[in-house]
Design goal:
Chain lengths: 379, 380
């Protein structure tokens, strides 16, 4: 697609849908799954939260919608406080128009910012049922309303036959990307993600030509916890910063795991990352692999070359970092608004973009804001 | 001191001699637990090799981490006699500095040094004192050496503070700190715990910075679980590469915990962490601060201003961060050679410098290469 087909010239490559309370209850058999079905419960203090498989889903409240709350320090505590633009697709389109966004690539919230929630469930059958309900809902209630929504499926993390089968099913229904938590072995007892056992996952994404998306936040372990004295607002700010940079560890592992070598047509998105540390990590990877003599182990491509061939970063307010975009490659950068998280640039994304893109040539600006994502998601 | 070459390494590693501990610690009290070098047999070597042994634990892999000081830059010495004098003898080490055309160097530990966690606070304290005394002697040989003290983390805070004060009196110009002591050893308090406040206060009073090196003890924590399938080289690449993950999270921690506001004249130095990531982390902190109105939560000062007031970051090979220097703070950037470790720029550091600083105006160059370090350590 080229710019003429767009109204605003902006694809947000990392936004989140807020799942409403009936997403799973209306699609999963109560008889079969009982209280294991993801649903909202009321706490003794009157606040509401999500539970799935008998465990609380780790969210600051019943939803994440900080950008819409008016008070930047507040997240909804009860469902009736959640602004419709978070969960209602017709309202969401209005939010996109307000912020002048053409297309919105969708990641979950209850399903996990990095699609990690259901991988933690002990029962793989329940995991599959939850995943399928999410994937069906996103097509039925969002993608069918407007082609401006770019749906991405979540998947059962293991076993691989199920992962692959669900990807095939979801892509056939219209999903355009696959979200996979980058460190599945930290969710439950499954093999290390570098093991060849995961080859079917990389292979099917390559075959179906859909990007595989690692969103920041898949592994709480690699994120420092806020200090005991942090207020909720300060803790949320701190977590927002460290969630993004925790992907440093994910990228370090992935650059040397040889997956990119073995699947040269696989496309990998590091969502909610940031250019600055990425540019540094790529330069460092080239330097360190030379210092360690990795070329003697059959690495014919430098880490930077692998990255440029197959990987993407998504950014949303980086300013300084665009000056070093050449280290990643202009074609490897996607933009986003991170709606409706509290740190989203909505509804003034255009002002942030103008501040970030000052001095960039028009063609590079267009690539980063629109063309790269349009090509990656075949829009 | 005189600046002859115009280059100060803010992160090098000072190796102590093999008798550094045995000559300073009580043999009758500590016996074989004292760090010393012993001959051992290892399966992959035909001949006996030598290793440091501390508290009965053999430190594996080599007898000295100094490959860039060797003729073969990827070789780690297996016997003490292979270790060049330039690595552990301060008078000879000056020759290495001259060869690399470096004026001064800040000395972080080389094994065994740094931490002595053997579940015995008295033993730790004895080792720490021996280390600090031995390294202070480098500065007695030449003011071109800038030693950094290690601390007896397992002791009561009064003992820790007293050792910091004693070390500074002896010539040390900063302290080594862990990013999260509670992760490093059982029973220690985390970095943000009020337990450490007397130490921050003492360092602020003494005018010495707190130094965190590479992952600062959090390498195992802030990384994906290790994969057994990596070769040794791949594994080293991955583990080295993600070390800066610590600094990208500890700096926001220092900012959002209020510690920088609380100790406004205390400097924090991040060594071997590079620069390129700093502007994005500061932008992220400023963005969150702005979006969430954190001034109403007691964080009065903009995060990036706190950084520029109190934090220093090191680089050695890179170009990314140098290009972003105005967004980082040109007064907050230090250069390092990392001598004698595997990624060191030694003995061609000026080639690396020219590669990194191509096109940078003289005023900025001088700050980055020696001016900032000279100011931080009050060398000139």
């Amino acid at each position: 697609m080229n710019i003429q087909n767009s109204k605003y010239g902006l694809i947000s490559a990392d936004d989140h849908v807020q799942e409403h309370p009936e997403v799973w209850t209306s699609r999963m058999s109560k008889q079969k799954w009982g209280d294991g079905i993801p649903h909202v419960i009321t706490e003794p203090d009157g606040s509401e939260c999500w539970v799935a498989g008998g465990r609380r889903v780790s969210l600051p409240g019943v939803a994440i919608a900080g950008a819409l709350m008016g008070d930047p320090q507040r997240e909804p505590r009860r469902w009736d406080e959640v602004p419709p633009m978070a969960y209602d697709p017709a309202e969401r389109l209005k939010a996109m128009d307000l912020d002048r966004v053409d297309y919105s690539v969708l990641y979950p919230i209850v399903g996990g910012l990095a699609a990690e929630s259901f991988g933690k469930l002990e029962d793989p059958d329940l995991e599959l049922a939850c995943v399928q309900a999410y994937n069906d809902w996103l097509i039925e209630e969002w993608a069918s309303i407007s082609p401006r929504f770019v749906p991405q499926c979540i998947v059962p993390i293991w076993p691989m036959e199920r992962t692959v089968a669900e990807i095939k099913r979801a892509v056939a229904k219209g999903h355009k990307g696959v979200i996979y938590p980058a460190s599945p072995m930290e969710l439950r007892a499954v093999p290390h993600v570098n093991e060849p056992a995961y080859d079917p996952l990389w292979g099917i994404c390559e075959d179906l030509n859909v990007p595989l998306c690692f969103h920041a936040g898949a592994s709480p372990r690699i994120q420092m916890r806020p200090g005991p004295g942090f207020s909720p607002a300060v803790a949320a700010a701190f977590s927002g910063v460290v969630r993004s940079v925790s992907s440093i560890a994910v990228l370090a592992n992935f650059l040397f795991s040889r997956v990119l070598y073995r699947f040269p047509n696989l496309k990998v998105v590091f969502a909610e990352s940031s250019l600055g540390w990425g540019a540094y990590e790529i330069e460092y990877a080239d330097y360190q692999s030379a210092a360690d003599g990795l070329e003697s182990e059959g690495y014919s491509l430098k880490p930077s070359e692998l990255f440029r061939r197959q990987c993407y970063f998504t950014c949303w307010y980086d300013r300084a970092s665009l000056r070093v975009r050449k280290y990643l490659g202009t074609s490897n950068i996607l933009w986003s608004t991170n709606f409706p998280l509290a740190n989203s640039t909505w509804p003034s994304s255009r002002r942030h973009i103008d501040a970030s893109f000052g001095g960039l040539p028009d063609d590079e600006r267009r690539e980063i804001l629109f063309d790269n994502a349009a090509k990656l998601y075949s829009l | 001191m005189e600046i002859k070459y115009g280059l100060i390494s803010s992160d090098s590693h000072g190796q102590l001699g093999k008798d550094a501990y045995t000559s300073r610690m009580s043999g009758s009290k500590w016996g074989d637990r004292i760090p010393h070098v012993v001959e051992v047999r290892e399966e992959k070597f035909a001949h006996a090799v030598e290793r440091w042994v501390v508290h009965g634990e053999i430190q594996g892999g080599n007898v000295c981490n100094c490959p860039t000081a060797m003729a073969n830059r990827k070789y780690y010495p297996q016997r003490w006699e292979e270790v060049p004098l330039e690595v552990y003898d301060p008078a000879h080490r000056l020759k290495a500095l001259d060869r690399d055309r470096v004026d001064a160097e800040v000395l972080f530990p080389n094994g065994p040094g740094g931490t002595f966690f053997y579940d015995d606070a008295d033993f730790e304290l004895a080792c720490v004192r021996a280390y600090n005394d031995a390294l202070a002697e480098f500065r007695q040989v030449s003011e071109r050496f800038v030693p950094l003290a290690v601390l007896p983390f397992m002791s009561p805070i009064e003992t820790i503070v007293a050792e910091a004060e004693r070390a500074v009196e002896a010539g040390h110009m900063g302290i080594n700190m862990l990013a999260d002591p509670s992760v490093a050893a059982k029973g220690l308090k985390s970095l943000g715990d009020p337990f450490w406040q007397p130490l921050w206060d003492a360092c602020q009073q003494l005018g010495v910075g707190v130094h965190l090196h590479a992952s600062a003890g959090l390498a195992g924590q802030l990384s994906l679980p290790r994969w057994e399938g990596f070769t040794r080289r791949q594994s080293h690449c991955v583990s080295t590469l993600r070390n800066f993950c610590t600094a990208t999270q500890i700096i926001p921690f220092l900012i959002f915990s209020g510690m920088l506001e609380q100790f406004p004249r205390l400097n924090w130095v991040f060594a071997e962490t590079g620069l390129g990531w700093v502007s994005s982390v500061l932008e992220a902190c400023d963005h969150e601060w702005q979006k969430r109105h954190l001034w109403s939560e007691g964080l009065i000062t903009r995060p990036s201003e706190l950084f520029r007031r109190q934090i220093f970051v090191d680089f050695w090979f890179e170009t990314v961060g140098v290009q972003l220097r105005d967004y980082i703070g040109v007064d907050n950037i230090l250069w390092e050679s990392d001598f004698p470790h595997i990624t060191s720029t030694y003995p061609t550091s000026w080639d690396a410098v020219e590669h990194s600083l191509a096109g940078v105006p003289t005023a900025d160059r001088e700050k980055i290469l020696f001016g900032n370090a000279a100011r931080l350590y009050r060398l000139i």
